[in-house]
Write the structure tokens for this entry.
Amino acid sequence: MEGTVVKSTGSWTTVRLRDGTRVDCKLKGQFRMRDIKHTNPVAIGDYVEVVLLPSDSHGMITQIRERENYIIRKATKLSKVSHIIAANLDHAYVIVTITHPRTSNGFIDRFLVTAEGYYIPASIIFNKLDLHKEEENQSMAHLKQIYEAAGYPCYAVSALYGDGLEPLKKQLQGRMNLFSGHSGAGKSALINAIDPDLKTKTGMLSEIHQKGMHTTTFAEMYEISGGGYIVDTPGIKEFGLIDFEKEEIPRCFPEMDRLLPYCQYKNCTHTHEPGCAVKSGLDSGEISHLRYNSYLSILNDR
């Protein structure tokens, strides 16, 4: 039987079969041995083949279909091993909060670079508008201007009061969507606001540490009203890049990639070369210093 992986807790994987039935499955041992470069050889969104075990109501995943795409990050505490966040995605959203807690620009840019590297369209959702005062609104407006100029659609919402959700809901319909962000950014609350029938867990923010309490402990896919799916992921403290070569990084900043043909050198790194259109763009204001500093930070990590 064929199905889609909708939940993974590590030891067990839940597969939704084509008829809508959900089956808890184990993974055949050969996949664990073959795919040791990843912490999880099977991921949310994977298309799989399943055999039901005659002894009980569980199943065995016997085949993992080739992925159309996937998004990964560096696994926690395992610098040379990656974790597949989700596969076969139509769109990836990073949930950003200006306050309570503040999402770092480095986190946003590393997420977007990863999405670019794996050919997944990405957008930014600014959540918790209800906590904004004038200073936070100005900061958000500044960031929206930067990222929209780079080519990333931005949405400003309040999961608590439902403000700004309608344009986002329209974009989610009929697509496989990934939601990711820091703990405490309100991913689960936002999913509840988009479709109250889902009733995912929400957590209280730790006022002491200004971080979430990791309500979502494993990734899970939800089917939303009107069609479409949202993959809710555990809160991420840092987004570590993996499997990127140094020369690939400039291509993952769309606003810089657009200027590359005007650079003097085809393999320009936009750091020290003469005749660099990106550095000229910095002087003219066409390229954001905030984004360029993130670019340099990522480049120096390679």
Summary: Residues 134-150 form the longest helix (17 residues). The chain has three domains: 2-64, 70-232, 246-301.
